[in-house]
Amino acid sequence: MTEPLDSLLSALDLTDTGARTSEDIFTGPSQWMPHGRVFGGQVLAQSLVAAIRTVPDERIVHSMHAYFLRPGDVNQPITFSVDRIHDGRSFSTRRTQAYQDGVPILSMIASFQDEDDGFDHQLEMPSDMPGPESLPNSADALADVDHPAARYWSRDRPFDIRHIPSPVYLTVEGDHVAHQAVWIKSIGPLPDDKNLHRAALAYASDYTILESIMRRHGVAWSTNGLKLASLDHAMWWHRFGRVDDWLLYVQESPSATGGRGLALGRIYSRDGVLLASVAQEGMMRVPGRP
């Protein structure tokens, strides 16, 4: 059970090359994926870690906006260049570009802020959700499926993911609605490093967010010919939470059109604290479907 977590921690432990002209340069490994493309959440989290390395410890990330430009190759490492765009009295802004073969695969801008006092409110967590202990995990849902993707989803991910009302790996059960929720938690404890937990939350935020679009149109991951790709990803960190505790990720899709769908998400701690908000647009195509 520790191997997927070790892989996550290794991926987020970037190497500082020591090179710096106008930008800071870091490198990181790519994790294996059954389809050969780098997992978007991995490069998001690594890009964030690279940016974090260039700001003072007292400044914490509060927002990130990223575009996925090209699919990454799991057989190659990734180079990250960080442009220190701005350092103000309270805020810092960084741009991270992730490269393979000399071309960018992701471009991200992140903003950091000194901790400050101010107004405080949040949307309440839905109160009618079953607890994670009552739901099947991915290994249970895919126990009878012998396929590289199914083996990865059930055994090799560093997060336990439990769907409400049910997973969409093989079929879409129940009503075709544009919303769902998942409980997520790392499969083991993580170090007491708040920035590591923030980066790991960005990593996990990319797993299921587009499933609210899939569920609305009755499209499961196993749908023949399905082509799905994240186009961009935005995230706002509101309050700190640990990813090795159960988190509720509430997801909905307000619109899909033109081969693209938009999905929104809110991530809560188990005791109802809103930790982060997420937005992602994805490309989704199914042969023979409008």
Q: Could you characterize the architecture of this molecule?
A:
- By secondary structure, the chain is an alpha+beta fold.
- It contains six helices and twelve strands.
- It has two domains: 116 residues, Thiol Ester Dehydrase, Chain A, CATH 3.10.129; 159 residues, Thiol Ester Dehydrase, Chain A.
- A twelve-stranded antiparallel β-sheet has the order 1-2-4-5-6-3-9-12-11-10-8-7.
- α2 runs antiparallel to α5.
- The radius of gyration is 19 Å and the shape is globular.
- The mean pLDDT is 94.
Summarize this entry quickly.
By secondary structure, this protein is α+β, with helices and mostly antiparallel strands.
Beta fraction = 35-45%
Q: What is the oligomeric state here?
A: single chain
Low-pLDDT segments: none
Adjacency order of strands in the biggest sheet: 1-2-4-5-6-3-9-12-11-10-8-7
Order of helices and strands: HEEHEEEEHHEEHHEEEE
CATH architecture label name of the largest domain:
Roll
CATH class of the largest domain: Alpha Beta
According to CATH, the homologous superfamily of the largest domain is: Hotdog Thioesterase
Percentage of residues in helical conformation: 10-25%
Mean pLDDT: 94
Q: What is the CATH topology assignment of the largest domain? A: Thiol Ester Dehydrase, Chain A
**Extended strand count:** 12
Q: What does the main sheet amount to?
A: 12 strands, antiparallel
